[in-house]
Fold these 2 entries.
Entry 1:
Amino acid sequence: MLEKYDLKKTADEGAYEKTLESYKERLNILQRTLRDQNVPTIIVIEGWNASGITMSIHEIVQALDPRGFALHAIEKPTEEERARPFLWRFWLRTPPRGKIALFARSWYSRAISEEMQKHAWEKSLAGRADRINNFERQLYDDGTVILKFFLHITKEEQKQRLEERERNPLTAWLVTPAIWNIHRHYEDTLPIIEHFITRTDTDYAPWTIIEATDRKYAIVKLYATIVKALDKQAEGLKEVKQKRAKQKELSRPRKNPVKRRSSPDRKFSKDECQEALGSLQIEMLELHYLLYKRKIPLMIAYEGWDAAGKGGNITRVTRYMNPLGYYVVPVSAPTEHEKQYHYLRRFIKHFPMGGDIAIFDRSWYGRVLVERVENYCSEPEWQRAYGEINEMEEDFVNSSGGGIVKFWLEISKEEQLRRFQQRANDPLKVYKITDEDWRNRERWDLYDKAVDAMLARTSTDIAPWTVIESDDKWYARVKALKTVMTTAQKLL
Amino acid sequence: MLEKYDLKKTADEGAYEKTLESYKERLNILQRTLRDQNVPTIIVIEGWNASGITMSIHEIVQALDPRGFALHAIEKPTEEERARPFLWRFWLRTPPRGKIALFARSWYSRAISEEMQKHAWEKSLAGRADRINNFERQLYDDGTVILKFFLHITKEEQKQRLEERERNPLTAWLVTPAIWNIHRHYEDTLPIIEHFITRTDTDYAPWTIIEATDRKYAIVKLYATIVKALDKQAEGLKEVKQKRAKQKELSRPRKNPVKRRSSPDRKFSKDECQEALGSLQIEMLELHYLLYKRKIPLMIAYEGWDAAGKGGNITRVTRYMNPLGYYVVPVSAPTEHEKQYHYLRRFIKHFPMGGDIAIFDRSWYGRVLVERVENYCSEPEWQRAYGEINEMEEDFVNSSGGGIVKFWLEISKEEQLRRFQQRANDPLKVYKITDEDWRNRERWDLYDKAVDAMLARTSTDIAPWTVIESDDKWYARVKALKTVMTTAQKLL
């Protein structure tokens, strides 16, 4: 594919400056228009070493208002980033609404350079391509414009440029042996890049190949493509998405539907449960040590009715964990800042590193519970969310080797009323009950329906839901701890 | 100092559980009270290896609502953190208003472990102690409660505990050769720790030594101290600060006062200036390469009257910088989130790594300009800010080896009016002029006074102000670029 492009020369050298100037002006205006339209934009510049990535960024940056863009030069991941799923650091770098994120190299070069050492790169890269397509599609569905460029030069041209840089004392030290080594493997890399570009060239995030031998031609084509695409966006002529990259089949919901009950089969005495907890907690401590030592991450998401006992349950489950190895992420309504991003980003940010246990006190399932019921998002948005969440969870498990435990704490409507009244009458607990709790209770049936849909559509093999019968809070604590331990054991 | 404490036993073993339970309840209530009072709290737990830091954290955490605290386990700095000033990562971990930050180890163990390898630790640690005192005092002045604990055990006790851990397969792998090595140097470390604790034991951030041989005693003393201190805070009985740690003398403002003028001595033609710019920009590119290669950071802060030409000036100065080696930080009013922290934190967050140039389009000087004039902060707050800013800049320069360039872009009141009118009449520039600009102009005299005070009180030897006579925008660009280059040359 890359070979089919001829190297073209800009016909009229004199017209170059003028053309460029008018593109810059146009891009500057488009930046303001998209800001006013709240559209986030991602521009990815990839290419061979010495193909002019930095120079291209330099040219684009000159057209932009610094208040409205961020430049991300992607290098090797830091230790912290390496301890997280592959796409984690790119999720954190997605632009807020109305802003532009420019990537000098991206998830693509990282995927290719990390996979090329391995055998069977074709299969491995295919997995990465699927995950990248999901990532880009999710951003696109959220309104992000994504433009991707590959700067192409021949091996001979690359050699000349590297030699030129070596002759200049200012740049000589940048041309390392590693870069020459990659140069020598140009022919081996070419088919991998072609394959990867083909698999990730989608309507929602298209690639443009830039023939970069003639720098002026490259810049003009880059600008022309960007301006044309953003013009379309600004005029609301967003193309209809048809060509979707082939998606890996998502792990299907389990055949046995998740049963919702608020009471366990038989009664348990408090003493019985406390004794069980006591012995389990020692085992839990051991499991936690092993997870920590083997750098396996674990996520625990707590959802449930108001007053179902999430707080107390978390306290018991964590009592015998090492406090340096777990953390609780309390989730409430998104802040103004968080609302500027894709709704999943604020959760992905808190994903655990290898060895850590992240406990979410409420979670990303808010999208299909409170946000659905209270109309904080549109129906297409929460309908889409089931698949997006399944993808996100699958990506986490597959790329980190970790596990996800999801608890739905079920109580009966009568039990909730009893607990609300108890709280209202206890001066030490009255702060726990708010008007909002009573309002939510009035919408019990709507929430009930949302919970059913959530359990049916997001209980997957890799991240199944566990319903905790919580009318009996002691039983609930034992069951939660046991479930966490069973999952942890499977991961070891 | 550490030896003078006897090991005490809790008299009544049976009363222990009861005492602890009541402390936990009290701390839980205090957490809510301080949340309502918007008071941030820092609790630092330091101590010998195996002295029980994790266990202490575990106990405290059980009393707290997870929504209101964050636990920071401080280990070796990451690559990114190492590329920044020593206190940078701790600034980012300070708690927002109403929340608690718990530190399992902190800036103290890092300072000691990093310095102990070097010769002349006494002098070196003294410098660290001064900087830490400044850090803690600035947080205290902003309303933060700071409590610091050192868990003390004897060398013999430490040996027994390490051996005990080695016998347990779950913990054996944690007792590394490095830990035994530190154990062997217990006697050498003791005076260093004593010295450091003495120098940083202040009224605004006091130390409490916890005799940690008897674990129950240690926990009770820890809780008792925390609850007592927070009780005082909650009741508004905050102690009067008298005992201030001896501060290093701050770099004094320069004797030559900074002269403010809006026009240069002689007229410059546009052609003359553009030519100068052209040749300087090549040199600038070279300097930038060297800064980058030698990992020297540089900060450039732009302040100036509205319409003084900050944007255009930044564009020219950066035109020949490598876009991957600089970034522009646009500063506007703090967000709700940013307001929850010390006002300097949002700037410190963007401090450059070694090799980067950070350009602030408006800066931390907003505290003594717009925030002073518009009464967004109180007079004691902005009065305090001059010293705080000098300390912050000094800390950056001393700990990073980098430089700070500060520009005040001066224009005359008449020139500003001319530019406002020009903008208002140009359809492509009208978006640049807002009602707020006109309102600010009405307060010219108030701003004028604030600028004078700022230049007089914060132009220091290590971070002097440069006034840019900006009535002539071409001259202004040349002078700014020249100033940046002079500073960069001195740093190489």
Entry 2:
Amino acid sequence: MEEIRLIEVKEEILSDNIKQAEEVRERLRKTKTMLLNLMSSPGSGKTSLILQTIEGLGGDLRLGVIEADIESTVDAEKVAARGIRAIQLRTGGFCHLDAAMVTQGIDAMDVSELDLVIIENVGNLVCPAEFDTGAYKNVMILSVPEGDDKPLKYPLMFSVCDLLLVNKIDYLSLSDFDMAALRKRVLALNPRIIILEVSCKTGAGIESWIDWLKAEVAAFKHLK
Amino acid sequence: MEEIRLIEVKEEILSDNIKQAEEVRERLRKTKTMLLNLMSSPGSGKTSLILQTIEGLGGDLRLGVIEADIESTVDAEKVAARGIRAIQLRTGGFCHLDAAMVTQGIDAMDVSELDLVIIENVGNLVCPAEFDTGAYKNVMILSVPEGDDKPLKYPLMFSVCDLLLVNKIDYLSLSDFDMAALRKRVLALNPRIIILEVSCKTGAGIESWIDWLKAEVAAFKHLK
């Protein structure tokens, strides 16, 4: 076995984002609008989950969606086609959303009329984990084909989330994905995270997700 | 259908990376070392491809690997266990490699003894596409479970690559992935890209990848 050489490379990270995020949170506490930040790799199923959520809620909550996309408006079109208010943030070269961008999204919606706003962040397991968007809850998706080792590679993302949806469980039969190993790795990073197994394709597990979402929105409404 | 609001958010992009990338290219032209930059989403199979490549080459080329990882050294350990020279660049919060970081990696290897150096970039379809690493060839992996719509969402990545490996074709039977639609979308962005279908799990298609790699290294050696 060859020796491994380790070199540290570093970057400065913006810090005034924290203040902006706090402003977003304060504003949405007043309007009783719960902001949820949805993150994952590209192709893990963020848009599919949002479409399943719209169907699962069946109009029980007044929902808005902020879509972040580098170039296209494909996702926002899918959401808007279901009659849901959709804001498209076209991020150009940007690899994540920050609180200032989310503020622009909120400014463009009448949030006082909404119970829940879901942000579909840029597909990326790295940068979005570092930037507080002002969301009340962070949710991430990991899909089965990405592998059970991802908590070892992208620990920050797993650490900053309140809930992990393990999506594409319909692929488990073809995969060597070890759910018990995944759970152990995730919980070692974040003991309080909730882990739900779902398939946005078959609808399996979506009911538990909807239940969690409704309970969280209800609890949020009672916050002083 | 609700109206979609579109908001442009922008970021400054570093520009002196271009000069540094040119220095890397000039240096490796002299040592006749072909540098290949491998990019994909998290969990698409970059490390698996490198391990298959080591096996497929069977010692025919003198290979080195530069692994970029945010926190762990898991991948570099797997490569080094096969007797291949591996440099681990621990990138901290960084979401991509730039030419300066690659220079640090090359400095830590004796590149004059190597025919080929493969960079495993950070798992990310966004930022790595924007930063020239100084590589002679850019290769990306898209895995079947990520979906055939990814060229619409991450067009720059598909535009900057010389070769696309469509990995995890063993999942095609469970998927609604449309290979013809994918090819059409990719070629619309980048008509000269080569597209190979592979499975790092079953080994399907790996021979074509190894053939391409050997031919490119041979051609590179003949460059003046």
